[in-house]
Write a structure and sequence with these properties.
Blueprint lengths: L4 H16 L20 E4 L5 E3 H5 L4 E6 L4 H16 L3 E7 L3 H11 L5 E5 L3 H6 L6 E5 L5 E6 L4 H16 L1
Parallel strand pairs: 3-4, 4-5
Antiparallel strand pairs: 1-2, 1-5, 3-6, 6-7
Length: 173
Amino acid sequence: MGKFLPLVIFVVLAWFLYNGLGRDTKKLPSPLIGKAFPNLEVEDFQTREKYQLQSRLKNKVSLVNVWASWCVTCRAEHQMLKKIAKVSSVQMVGVNYKDTKKEGKRFLEILGNPFDFIVFDDKGKLGLELGVYATPETFIVDKDGVIQFKRIGEITPQIWQKQMLPLIDKLQK
């Protein structure tokens, strides 16, 4: 029996390796798809006003983007978000995640602000509720405040055209 143990371990490891090849690591299933967006009391990035987040999401299709000034991929993605804001009627919501206001404002001053409003999530409480583990992460939320899509990583023109825009158009009808 002892002779076959290394062979069994090798076969099991090889199966896990083979099974993982070819998987899109950016397309992880989210347990939040089909569930209500968290309704936390949040702070507005610009005004410091506190409000229930669902009140700003109801009756509008929203693209919610979790970003930070320290995130290199967020910087790369930002131009795409500005293009989306110009060509789409989707409500653009930013979540400034585990950042400082000073650095977040500097980021927006340099790169521009594509968002209709921004939630300041310096402690990561909203991010925790959303299961955020890497920035950027983007959610599409329907008019009822239900999460319909999640993207981990940069939004590219191809992802926007093939996955996100068709869903937003469908939800807006």
